[in-house]
Amino acid sequence: MSSSNTPLLYTVGTPNGHKASIILEELKHAYGFQYDFQKISFQTNEQKEPWFLKINPNGRIPALVDRSRDNFAVFESAAILLYVAQHYDKERKFSYDPIQDPDLYSEQLQWIFFTHGGIGPMQGQANHFYRYAPEKIPYGINRYITETKRLYSVLNDRLADREYLVGPGKGKYGLADINTFPWVRSWRWAGVDSLEAFPNVEAWLKRIAERPQVKSGLDVPDPQGPPLTKEEEEKAAEEARKWIFQSQK
């Protein structure tokens, strides 16, 4: 049961938000870890309100306030993953110890940063130009979709003879996978037409998506519905455009 002493996640159902909720659900299942979450309203620009900016000066989700550690605040999705692993993944089921396993810890960081500095920003720009931009700019659309595909090819090569991104042998499911999965599972939204050229990535996505804790993490803060039709995608994008451009004013 959650309480006022549990970590509190401020989030929305985006790839970055889902990174945080998936690791928290994994910790919940593995250790009985408890947390609370609160949905932030993009429609009302809640992430720009003074109370939230005290938690995350950048005005973005997710953000975590660890009420069990004197309300220590953490922002940036990858930083949240590393923070909760440091303090709550006591048996290192999803992470590596920097002292006991320094090489694997470094490998973990490399693949986390690969997504944090590559797939996330590039696919985010693909989302913008393909879905949200007020005018269709072919150069922007092609530039970012092409770069997203290139980054997928790096993942595909990495996964050629392994099941997960980091770890000896076939690898161990962990932070690097959790950090990357929510972005790559949203490939259609970014305008990527197919994963046919990335069979190892497709198998990896399926493998992770089958985990019950991943499914429950994707239901935070709102339950996931069935895949959208083309018409529903356009309607969702149109609704999102309203608050995206409102937040830029």
TrEMBL record:
Annotated GST C-terminal domain residues: 101-227
Domain GST N-terminal residue range list: 8-92
Annotated spans, Disordered: 215-249
InterPro entries associated with the record: Glutathione-S-Trfase_C-like (IPR010987), Glutathione-S-Trfase_C_sf (IPR036282), Glutathione_S-Trfase (IPR040079), Glutathione_S-Trfase_N (IPR004045), GST_C (IPR004046), Thioredoxin-like_sf (IPR036249)
Bias (Basic and acidic residues) ranges: 229-242
Annotated CDD domains: GST_N_Ure2p_like
Family the UniProt entry places it in: Belongs to the GST superfamily.
Protein name stated in the entry: Glutathione S-transferase
